[in-house]
Design a protein that fits this description.
Fatty acid desaturase; oxidoreductase activity, acting on paired donors, with oxidation of a pair of donors resulting in the reduction of molecular oxygen to two molecules of water; two-stranded parallel ribbon; Fatty_acid_desaturase
Length: about 375
């Protein structure tokens, strides 16, 4: 694997970083009421869909009404998690000073505690993006998704683990900051995670109580149908979130890095790592909104605290900079990226063959070997 520091000369890295800093500065200077109006519209839409879904559950004895209720709740939960919760908790709207949009206190409609997620995602993942043994989002401590992860017979179950993680994704994210894999290795103890566990229990209790006790009971004799409808909406949201997130991080040609090659990393090198370690998903405006604009994962990794609605605006500029410096800008439709992820999950379930150990792991490396 080519060392990250050898991709560009020091002078190129400095200029590369300066150009991306300039894009960021222009975005920050342009933020204003239009961005506030946008997120408020999304919040109103999300709340309206939730009210409609809860109301339609009272007609759940009619199949069309039940399906409509599940549809409304599914879209509501997707918007809450992707375009609202994820982005607000990244601090994308902290500049507004609006209490309801405060990243440090915002809580979302999912099983994962906001505080735990802010640590495992905002800090661990976005600081150490795709650094093996540092970024715990690489496989989520469950899957082997990269050739540099040491193979173990446990990974023969990779496809099964992936399906279960997709179905119960909110619970996988909830457990993420518990770091069970590190406990099994003896690196940390159960006691070390006492505060994490406390927040997990509190949040899980609220979510279970809301979706599987309170709202079903409110519909009286229709409680079983309401419970099933709420569970269905949660699964739809989980599957969608899993697909978007995995397609933004693990398709073919997304690269991983070692701790040694990122030591003493400059801002330009950090930007470089974000681009090489991310992938975009092409689609229309509604698709981007439903993905929380994480369909622009490259731009999100570059500027995680900039309102995500701005990512489509700057994507052509970022792509042009990549072309200027001969860097890959990984993008493709959802089905292509999803198939690519599925192929990796299946491939890395098996022990590596000798030729695979020696083979380049990315398209860039294949091109470099071919040109050598």
């Amino acid at each position: 694997m080519t060392d990250l520091r050898d991709r560009l000369t020091p002078e190129q890295v400095e200029e590369f970083g300066r150009e991306l800093d300039e894009i960021r500065q222009q975005l920050v200077a342009d933020l204003g009421q239009e961005d506030v109006d946008y997120i408020n519209r999304v919040i109103r839409t999300q709340r309206g869909l939730e009210v409609a879904g809860r109301g339609l559950m009272y007609l759940g004895f009619l199949p069309p009404a039940w399906l409509a209720a599940v549809g409304c709740l599914s879209v509501s939960k997707i918007l809450d998690n992707m375009e609202i919760g994820h982005n607000v908790m990244h601090g994308q709207y902290d500049w507004t000073r609006i209490p309801e949009l405060n990243s440090k206190t915002f809580e979302w409609d999912t099983a994962a505690s906001g505080d735990n997620w802010r640590h495992s995602h905002n800090y661990m993942h976005h600081t150490h993006t795709n650094i093996i043994d540092k970024d715990r989002d690489v496989g989520y401590g469950i899957l082997r998704i990269d050739p540099d992860q040491e193979w173990h017979p446990y990974y023969l179950g990779n496809p099964v683990y992936a399906v279960l993680l997709a179905i119960f994704f909110e619970w996988g994210v909830s457990l993420h900051d518990l770091e069970v894999d590190r406990m099994l290795k003896g690196e940390i103890s159960w006691k070390d995670k006492a505060e994490v566990r406390r927040k997990m229990r509190a949040k899980a209790g609220r979510q279970i109580g809301k979706d599987y006790v309170l709202f079903p009971l409110l519909t009286g004799p229709l409680a079983p149908l309401t419970l099933l409808g709420n569970a269905s909406a949660n699964v739809v949201r989980n599957l969608w979130a899993f697909a978007i997130i995995f397609c933004g991080h693990f398709p073919e040609d997304v690269e991983s890095f070692s701790e040694s090659e990122t030591e003493g990393e400059t801002r330009g090198q950090w930007y470089l790592r974000q681009i090489l370690g991310s992938a975009n998903i092409s689609g229309g405006k509604l698709f981007h909104i439903m993905s929380g604009n994480l369909s622009h994962q490259i731009e999100h990794h570059l500027f995680p605290d900039i309102p995500a609605r701005r990512y489509p605006q700057i994507a052509p500029q970022v792509r042009a900079i990549c072309e200027k410096y001969g860097l890959s800008y990984n993008t493709g439709p959802l089905h292509k990226q999803l198939l690519s992820v599925a192929k990796k999950i299946l491939t890395f379930a098996l022990p590596p063959r000798e030729k695979e150990k020696q083979a380049p792991t990315t398209l860039n490396e294949e091109k470099e070997l071919a040109a050598a």
